[in-house]
Amino acid sequence: MEEENRTYTYTYSARQHEEVDNIRKKYLPKEEDKMEQLRRLDQKAAERGKIVAIIVGIVSSLVLGIGMCCTMIWTGFFAAGIVIGIIGLAGLALVCPLYIHITAKDRKKLAPQIIALSNELMK
Mean pLDDT over residues 95-111, rounded? Predict the structure, then answer.
């Protein structure tokens, strides 16, 4: 019997393998791992507080601006402008405590889920 010269050649391309993996990931269903869930829950705890604080801040700034217009531009509304401006300033002063209160409340509500996930990750 005659020996045949059989050789196996293999070429590995890391760049090609990486590109194939990236394309494949686009079509696979997304599975959220525990660390991503933990990050998402942490962000969710502050989300509602941010939204409320931004809305109150914008409205209070506009009220303060109206008060300033009443005192500086529109004649005859000076006293009303002072009152409206003080209301706007009070609203702006409440933004930070409002954010802290809402965020603490939401964190307290999400604490059991976050602690359970973090305990699983620490194992």
Answer: 94
